[in-house]
Design brief:
Chain A: This is DUF4331 domain-containing protein. The complex is a heterodimer. By secondary structure, chain A is an alpha+beta fold. In chain A, 14% of the residues lie in helices and 25% in strands. In chain A, a hairpin with a 2-residue loop joins strand 7 and strand 8.
């Protein structure tokens, strides 16, 4: 998946597991930028009685780099605190929750928002309320109204933190069954009949932290970005989750308590970077490092394992890719440095030579009136890899890029295989409807409304 | 680590007061530490990652204090060994 359960260690710690990061110019107000990070993957909506919630013992952050160093010049920190109103009850709610302040919600969660600029922290707000999860029509009637109450205005920012429907779509069941793409099953080395893709993420929820920020609050000089080719217009974005370095079981409380400084346990910039680029033995380490340490991982971008697998899994389908033995400068630019000016006419999101996995958003590019889910490779410069919108089909984009479709951007002598522009996992966005305004992600599925899945042993 | 700092650490750690712990005075080291006004006043973890080295990491609050003191490491190792 984008980054759901992407590394061995973090897959055992879902509360701190980042799943997707989005950064885009707001289509509702192009002077604003939307920063979204999702955590806690694959939430089955009916997972009670202890429903999903942010970790009080986790520091969640969205970082922005606005210089050439790929350092966190601006960080937004979210710290959560859960209050149990009635510890004598086993219930998540003791009656309908019609307002996020209702006493019937037995486990309200609040949070503080801190903005750190070049190391100087300033708490913007505290006591901000998250919405409850979507339990069902009796417990959380009119969930849309409840969630709307949890959109807070903090100065010139808007902020939301709570449960949302996952907007990512991917065929997990097929891709991780020996790299199978159902629409191309017949061409697979272990052939099966072709069929449509299955969106494995459909109907699952995540927990979202989302910010709407004036674009000029993210530039290095406070100026509103207006010139696409001006280096100051592009920012790098990534999210992290951190835990205390030490953890001890407190027998009095019956739970673990943390001691010491925060240490990073999860990181996410570009979708699928740690998942399919970084090898298994280094994924956990990668999660603990800052983006500007990614030079150590550049060799996995320059010679990605997946590019070698495609010709082996689909014999005869990718002959040109199989023969290409040069370093993948196209992927290096897309994922690690941004695309320099001159590669795509009128576009750049280059952030300097420091190799760092970040989403790079050129904020001077306005939202598209007619968005294309294939983003920049389809001529829509407002989409991935220029930042990432919720609608962007990053699985197809990255699959085609790895398959060689973007090599001619940097190596005109290369002719992509015909399959490179057709390969896909066959899924489409069958997730919840998105909202037209902040926080944009769709409402989470309800527990009562959830139907069993279709798992079969064979 | 100065003797003062070591005493501060021992006092803050509360070592020697918990049941089952061993006094750290064996080997002729100072018998009693004096609490410093600026000592930590919350639980902490002391971490010795290299038993052959001289480094003790103290995890307290949201901080990590790194102490270089081979004698302190030895005393902790002795204590951990029941000596």
């Amino acid at each position: 998946m984008s980054s759901h359960r992407e590394a061995p260690e973090i897959s055992k710690d879902p509360v701190a597991d980042s799943t997707d990061v989005y950064a885009f110019v707001s289509p509702a107000d192009p002077s604003k930028v939307i920063l979204i990070a999702n955590f806690i993957p694959l939430q089955k909506p009916d997972g009670g009685p202890n429903f999903y919630e942010f970790g009080d013992d986790v520091l969640y952050e969205i970082h922005v780099s606005n210089t050439n160093k790929a350092e966190p010049n601006i960080s937004y920190q979210f710290r959560f605190h859960t209050h149990v109103r009635n510890p004598a009850s086993f219930l998540y709610n003791t009656g309908p929750i019609s307002d996020i302040t209702d006493a019937t919600w037995n486990r309200p969660q609040k949070y503080s928002l801190t903005r750190v600029v070049n190391g100087e922290a300033r708490q913007l707000a505290s006591g901000l309320t998250s919405p409850p999860v979507n339990v069902g029509p009796r417990s959380t009637p009119n969930y849309a109204a409840l969630a709307e109450q949890a959109v807070h205005t903090v100065g010139n920012h808007r902020v939301f933190a709570g449960q949302r429907a996952d907007a990512f779509h991917v065929d997990l069941g097929s891709i991780f069954d020996l790299g199978a793409l159902r629409p191309f099953n017949e061409a697979h080395v272990i052939s099966m009949p072709n069929m449509g893709g299955v969106n494995a993420v459909q109907s699952y929820n995540v927990h979202t932290i989302a910010l709407e920020v004036p674009a000029k609050a993210l530039t290095r000089d406070g100026a509103a970005p207006s010139d696409v080719l001006d280096r100051r217009s592009t920012i790098g974005v990534w999210a992290t989750a951190s835990r205390k370095k030490g953890s001890v079981f407190d027998a009095q409380q019956g739970k673990f308590v943390g001691r010491g400084p925060w240490v990073q346990v999860s990181r996410l910039g570009n979708p699928l970077f740690n998942e399919v680029i970084v090898p298994m033995g280094r994924k956990d380490k990668w999660n603990s490092l800052p983006p500007n340490a990614d030079d150590k991982f550049a060799k996995y971008v320059d010679h990605p394992e997946l590019a070698g697998l495609l010709p082996a899994l689909y014999p005869g389908v990718f002959p040109n890719l199989a023969a290409y033995d040069k370093s993948r400068a196209d992927l290096d630019a897309i994922l690690l440095t941004g695309i320099p000016s001159g590669v795509v006419p009128g576009f750049t999101n280059y952030t300097g030579p420091v190799k760092a996995d970040m989403l790079r958003l050129n904020m001077a590019i306005p939202p598209s009136d007619n968005p294309n889910s294939l983003g920049l490779v389809a001529g829509d410069a407002a989409g991935f890899p220029n930042g990432r919108r919720i609608i962007d089909d990053v699985v197809t984009i990255e699959l085609r890029a790895v398959a060689g479709l973007t090599i001619p951007l940097v190596d005109p002598s290369y002719t992509p295989d015909g399959a490179a522009s057709a390969v896909e996992d066959g899924t489409s966005d069958t997730n919840a409807d998105l909202l037209d305004d902040f926080p944009f992600l769709g409402l989470p599925g309800g527990g009562y409304q959830t139907q069993p899945g279709t798992t079969q042993a064979s | 680590m100065s003797e003062t700092n070591r005493r501060k650490f021992l006092a803050a750690a509360g070592i020697g007061t918990a049941a089952g712990t061993v006094g750290l005075v064996a080997g002729g080291s100072p018998a009693r530490a004096t609490p410093h006004p600026e000592r930590a006043k919350e639980p902490l973890l002391a971490l010795v990652e290299d038993h052959r080295g001289s480094e003790v990491r103290l995890l307290v609050g949201e901080r990590e204090v790194v102490v270089q003191d081979r004698d302190l490491v030895t005393r902790l190792l002795n204590a951990a060994g029941g000596r």
